[in-house]
Design goal:
Length: about 425
Amino acid sequence: MGESLQKLFEGYREGYALPGAVYKDPEIYELEVEHILLKSWLYVGHQSLVPERGDYFLFEIAGESVILIRDAQGGINALLNVCRHRGSRICDVPEGHESRLTCRYHGWTYGLDGSLKAAARTPEGFDRSKWGLKRLHVAVLEGMIFVNFAENAPDFSALAREMGPPLRPYGLDKAKVALRRNYPIASNWKLTVENYCECYHCQPAHPEYSVGHGRAIPDAECTAMRSDVMAKAEGVGLTQHTIRHSWLGAPAFGLDYSFDRYPLLRGQLTGSRDGKPVAPLLGTITGYDGGTTDFHLGPMTFGLAYCDHVVLYRFTPRGHHLTDCEITWLVNEKAVEGKDYDLANLTWLWDVTTIADKAIIERNQAGVDSRYYEPGPLSPSMEPFTQQFLNWYVAAMRRITGGGLPGRRPVATIRKTAEGRT
Ligand code: FES
Ligand SMILES: [Fe+2]
């Protein structure tokens, strides 16, 4: 790690965009993966993906693969998809069901908790109990599963304790996944997060969104409308929470969480083509208060909670110039497609918006890759959350490149947390 990297981050000027090197230097990307992404709480999927014992799905990030599998006791285990014999991947089908996990290379066989059950012709004195699959920390909040690769992951309980009550009325633990769709974006992960964190681009890029959402105009211009939403919230079974613990305001690195309500405009009730409901009310919600909610869970996951559906965004780096943006649309558990909601209608707004985001982010990547790119000033009224992200990122990179971080590669450990037991 060169002095030059240290200088690069020491030289960042608050109020401005980041230097171009951070979007294309493979060395920086490797440092980010090791010290930022693999040390953060990462949303991986909804628990309805694994309803029965032996059901599993894979979560892949930056060359790592994790098996999320339901065990006999009903818990969810996060197991590294790396055989303890000579390292082969064990599962390569993205979702499935297995009664045991058998490596097809030499047949080592693991239980659903990752313990090694069988291995043929091992050396004398071989202790099977020492060769189980490595496990990651796992936690479940309102049906949403999170993992953390770090050995000393920050306790998830602060997030669960504070975010549980405002999220509970939406009934996300039982909600139905109406659709999961991936939008691969040919850009560095930071450009995807920067873009998500600001709505300066909404007026030019998202006319469909801007017409109905208060986020498209400065917060100061929404104050009265926001108060109105907050006043109505409890009457429809929602709460008046405002929680802001993202970025440098998080209680621990990688444990970001926020819950922030804002008004819908022009009498819209939800995020849809005409502002009218697109699905039955969620959970225990009894009506529409004219607002919506932005929430943030761990650095890479953002959500939008309307009264009738929730849209979850999961950003996952695949390489320094490739990021997956997976969207999950959640609806009331009892909602039946074709009867209670039309899938195309439900997903229209965030599909069209994300297709537009993919285009602007990829164009942004092409521009910052120019040798003539120079960081420009951010808008104080429209890009404050992006500024907070940049400050957090730069603080982390200063620590990393300044030699202030002990240890090397994070190692998975045997510890498990789950909702109610964190
Ligand atoms: S690498 Fe898995 S059994 Fe040999
Ligand atoms: Fe956007």
